[in-house]
């Protein structure tokens, strides 16, 4: 049951956060990719308003059918030619990893008359994903993006590799947190480090203990995904 899963998750998030912070400091983004609108509405009825999709097309088709107070998060790799479809529909883009992409978002933001909040995806482990910028290149990217007037960096995102033991990923979350502290200290114009998007179904507790402010949870809410339907 989606309802029971969300109740259990809220408990777990509270207890993981409580050493240093409060439940409300961690946003639960329900990752609804591959799942139908009815299942999203079940989560919505439990008070969830943040939903994550990793494909532009899927986000668009759900966007029209679902309540307008949903905050949509684009969490997957974003191709530049698709930015125009979602720039005025997303609450937050988690996966910006190049200046070219940020520049395209800026162009489309101007055309659509909106401001766009983004996170920079950092590839810390180099295992799970070929996407994300290397940490050595992060400061350079941020300084360049800081000049874009309609694109606002709110923090960082990372994807940890899947492991049986989430403790193996603790160092990755710690490293992202430390990077955010270093960047914050640089006081770059138009760059904020308010959001750390890290932690998924298998490792969100460890991620919260290391300072995550936004967890992206799919399977632990909706169950296994079936990519064949
Ligand atoms: C699918 C996905 C998730 C959710 O993964 P679960 O293990 O099902 O919680 C989180 N983040 C990203 C970027 C994803 O693509």
How would you characterize the overall build of this protein?
- The model has no long low-confidence stretch (mean pLDDT 95).
- The protein is an alpha/beta fold and 229 residues long.
- Strand 6, helix 7 and strand 7 form a beta-alpha-beta unit.
- The chain has an 8-stranded parallel β-sheet.
- Bound molecules: pyridoxal-5'-phosphate.
- Pyridoxal-5'-phosphate binds next to strand 8 and helix 9.
Quick summary:
The protein is of the alpha/beta class and 229 residues long. It contains 9 helices and 8 strands.
Primary descriptors:
alpha/beta, binds pyridoxal-5'-phosphate, 9 helices, 8 strands, eight-stranded parallel beta sheet, 229 residues, 18% strand
Sheet of most strands: 8 strands, parallel
Distance between the termini: 20 Å
Helix share of residues? 25-40%
Low-confidence stretches: none
Mean pLDDT over the full residue set: 95
Oligomer: single chain
The number of helices is 9
Structural class based on helices, strands and sheet pairing? alpha/beta
Rg measurement, Å: 17 Å
Strand order within the widest beta sheet: 7-6-5-4-3-2-1-8
Gross morphology: globular
- As a percent range, the share of strand residues is 15-25%
Q: Order of SSEs, N→C?
A: HEHEHEHEHEHEHEHEH
Number-wise, the strands total 8
């Amino acid at each position: 049951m989606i309802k029971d899963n969300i109740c259990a998750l809220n408990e777990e998030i509270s207890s993981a956060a409580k050493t240093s912070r409060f439940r409300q400091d961690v946003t639960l983004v329900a990752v609804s990719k591959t799942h139908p609108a009815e299942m999203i509405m079940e989560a919505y009825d439990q008070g969830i308003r943040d939903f994550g999709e990793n494909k532009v097309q899927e986000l668009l088709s759900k966007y029209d059918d679902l309540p307008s107070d949903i905050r949509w998060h684009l969490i997957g790799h974003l191709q530049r030619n698709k930015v125009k479809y979602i720039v005025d529909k997303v609450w937050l883009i988690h996966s910006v990893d190049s200046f070219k992409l940020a520049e395209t978002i800026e162009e489309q933001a101007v055309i659509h008359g909106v401001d766009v909040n983004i996170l920079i995806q950092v590839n810390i482990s180099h295992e799970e994903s070929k996407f994300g910028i290397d940490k050595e290149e992060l400061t350079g990217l941020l300084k360049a993006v800081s000049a874009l007037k309609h694109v606002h960096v709110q923090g960082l995102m990372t994807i940890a590799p899947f492991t049986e033991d989430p403790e193996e990923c603790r160092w990755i979350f710690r490293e992202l947190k430390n990077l955010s502290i270093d960047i914050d200290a640089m006081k770059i114009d138009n760059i904020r480090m308010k959001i750390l998007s890290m932690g998924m179904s298998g490792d969100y507790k460890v991620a919260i203990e290391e300072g995550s402010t936004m967890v992206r949870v799919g399977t632990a809410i909706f169950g296994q995904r079936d990519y064949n339907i």
